[in-house]
Amino acid sequence: MDSLKGKTILITGGTGSFGKTVTRRLLEEGQVARIVIYSRDEKKQHDMRLDFKHPKLQFEIGDVRDPDRIMRAMAGVDMVFHAAAMKQVPACEFFPMEAVKTNVIGTNNVIDAAIFHAVEKVVVLSTDKAAYPVNAMGCSKMMMEKLMIARAQASAPGQRTVLCGVRYGNVLYSRGSVVPLFVDQIRRGEALTLTNPDMTRFLMPLADAIDLVLHALRHGKSGDLSIHKAKAATIGDLARACLKLFSANNEIKIIGVRAGEKLHETLATAEELSRSEDLSAYWRIPCERGHEFDKYYVEGRPEVGAIDAFTSDNAERLNVSSIVELLKTLPEIQQELGIH
Ligand SMILES: O=c1ccn([C@@H]2O[C@H](COP(=O)(O)OP(=O)(O)O[C@H]3O[C@H](CO)[C@@H](O)[C@H](O)[C@H]3O)[C@@H](O)[C@H]2O)c(=O)[nH]1
């Protein structure tokens, strides 16, 4: 990956599972000069430092909510992954202003600092919950995307910084998500708590999410959103796949759809797909026409209306055996099952 040769990469929220995995990948590729991990939690940074013990890693304690701090941390940086976020639906539902502070204002601070320091590229990480949002987490992430797009379009002549983003769905086995919960329930011999067996979600191994983000880092143009054409499954099949994987026969208890949840997620809206570019595994969603107010209102797109949104309901559907095969590729499951 020549474009990363000698570069300094800053990762906000860098001690999370995305941050650690992308760090490992970049260090293995050996091209980058330095990786700056910018995050709030000293304990997580300490653990990551001990885990990696790598001279190219630099740790900076700071919050994206603090504009002065992120401004100082950004000096000398070439590229940014902006992964710091409040991402839990219930927490954002109860404390929406906190989601605004981190996901919206924090992103604005990161963009300000990046533009000030003439950073080459910023990739912001978003979620399918930002498309046709129904909860505060999705709304704040949608605002993050809108902010990235507006700042990309409003760039001053000569502005060097390319601002772009990615949107992906549920990352399999991410902390607090349903698969580790089901595995835990299986291990304890408890009933699997299923919200609604017909609910669907995009399922993405973390490795695919990293590929998507690195794709955006290499190819994203200013204002672009890159979206992976992910596969999806029903939650009923996901539960059955977990049981099959562990040859278990725990009961399944239906608990009903929780507050702030959708039956199906959307990765790309109909409006976005009508202006998308098909890049085989990905879609490139360029931003709307430039920052000219008049054109926004008078130039329409006849294609809108003829295209369906890309949802976890109409995406390629994984069946129980293909979910089992997918789960078996995950390092966490391999460890649980004692296979490598
Ligand atoms: O006890 C449970 C918990 C969850 N589910 C279902 O499992 C699916 C996935 O749930 P979960 O793993 O909690 O993920 P989401 O609520 O969809 O949100 C995750 O995926 C988002 C990306 O879409 C991230 O932004 C969020 O941080 C992350 O929690 C959903 O259909 C849930 O209704 C159950 O059936 N039983």
Automatic annotation (TrEMBL):
Isomerase as a keyword of this entry, yes or no, is yes
- Entry similarity comment: Belongs to the polysaccharide synthase family.
Which Gene Ontology terms cover its molecular function? UDP-glucose 4-epimerase activity
- Keyword terms, alphabetized: Isomerase, Lipopolysaccharide biosynthesis
Signal peptide positions are: none
Q: Which organism is it from?
A: Aestuariispira insulae
Specify the Polysaccharide biosynthesis protein CapD-like domain's residue ranges.
9-284
**Recorded catalytic activity of this chain's protein:** UDP-alpha-D-glucose = UDP-alpha-D-galactose
Instruction: Tell me its EC number(s), please.
Output: 5.1.3.2
Q: Name one GO biological process term.
A: lipopolysaccharide biosynthetic process
Enzyme type, top EC level: isomerase
Task: State the protein's name.
Answer: UDP-glucose 4-epimerase
What residues does the UDP-glucose 4-epimerase CapD C-terminal domain cover? 292-334
* Pfam families recorded: Polysacc_syn_2C, Polysacc_synt_2
User: Which Gene3D superfamilies did the record assign?
Assistant: NAD(P)-binding Rossmann-like Domain
